[in-house]
Amino acid sequence: MSYLAKKMILECFCCAARKEEPNISAHNSSREYPWEIYTLKEILHATNNFHNDNKIGEGGFGSVYWGRTSTGIEIAVKRLKAMSAKAEMEFAVEVEILGRVRHKNLLGLRGFYAGGDERLIVYDYMPNHSLIAHLHGQLAVDCLLDWHRRMNIAIGSAEGIAYLHHEANPHIIHRDIKASNVLLDTEFQAKVADFGFAKLIPEGVTHMTTRVKGTLGYLAPEYAMWGKVSESCDVYSFGILLLEIISAKKPLEKLPGGVRRDIVQWVTPYVQKGAFDHIADPRLKGRYDRAQLETAIMIAMRCTDSNPENRPSMMKVVEWLNGGLEGTKGVSDVEDMVDEDEEQNYNGMEYEDDTDYDGYNGTEKFRERRTWQHRK
């Protein structure tokens, strides 16, 4: 989508928001668009004037606040920090895309506010916070994610991404699949979130070259190095996420001497030896189905193949994961896919743990992005 088209979308949002400002936004069901246009007064009341005690996340884009509407509905409000052309673009993209999609494993858009210097996006509130909080954050010590929950989260995330790739019209590439962008509802069902970097893919287009955006450690090699983006880039990121879910290892870790190792490099020797139990999160204490563990790891390895042409589609990944959990052989052709000499190589790129990358051809800019934290 062109810059002009996105700018026009944003202007339509802003005009609509200004037009609706005097009214209560809770009665939008008869309108043509699927979201609510909130008034600033409503959001200020829900978040206690964006009180610091209501803050549940913060990043380079701004902050996320918990709130409760006058009707008792819990919401999460993303408040953009500063108005810039880039911020407005991401706002327009996210609202447009979330307005298009409807799936049980995608975070639901409740509405937005656009007026003056404020750009606010209102989502469903996720009581169990983000996957990253359970794997690496302050909820990790509670170990609330048993094997069954982890596999359900993996399948739910895969189904949400598969919907974006294969059912949304036009198809959508997320470009920022990672643990902090998988939120968990009351039943620990996965909701893929944050579409600020997403790309709409026109019919018949298989890939594009674009400015690199996303999070180091999750980026497919061809995208990180050359800006070549396609649906297989999301597949790669999902493979990293799946390994992270299984092992509770970060996508990137710093070794003694300043050397950085990605999760695929860490996993590969164990896969080659068939030592799958060494990959599983020790906090599971062996309480997992070993056949499912092996299948899930091999699916992840297939997803993270350095050659994008060898990666499966997300539809195939969903099929494999569901097959594996039902006790059947989920991946029939991956036993030979781990080459003895295979190694993920980023040609000496500098990268940080769970840090977003916004640059292209050597121009790097690191920004912290949202991590949903446990509400105080």
UniProtKB/TrEMBL annotation:
Gene that encodes the chain: LOC105137565
SUPFAM superfamilies found in the cross-reference section: Protein kinase-like (PK-like)
SMART domains: S_TKc
Feature: compositional bias, Basic and acidic residues: 364-376
Protein name stated in the entry: PTI1-like tyrosine-protein kinase At3g15890 isoform X1
GO molecular function terms listed in the Swiss-Prot or TrEMBL record: ATP binding; protein serine/threonine kinase activity
Keyword RNA-binding: no
Region (Disordered): 334-376
Chain residues that bind ATP: 78
Lineage, uppermost ranks: Eukaryota, Viridiplantae, Streptophyta, Embryophyta, Tracheophyta
Pfam families per record: Pkinase
Compositional bias per record (Acidic residues), positions renumbered to this chain: 334-357
The Protein kinase domain, residue ranges: 50-321
Family: Belongs to the protein kinase superfamily.
CDD domains named among the record's database cross-references: STKc_IRAK
Keyword ATP-binding: yes
InterPro entries per the UniProt record, alphabetical: CR_Ser/Thr_kinase, Kinase-like_dom_sf, Prot_kinase_dom, Protein_kinase_ATP_BS, Ser/Thr_kinase_AS
Source superkingdom: Eukaryota
Keywords assigned: ATP-binding, Kinase, Nucleotide-binding, Serine/threonine-protein kinase, Transferase
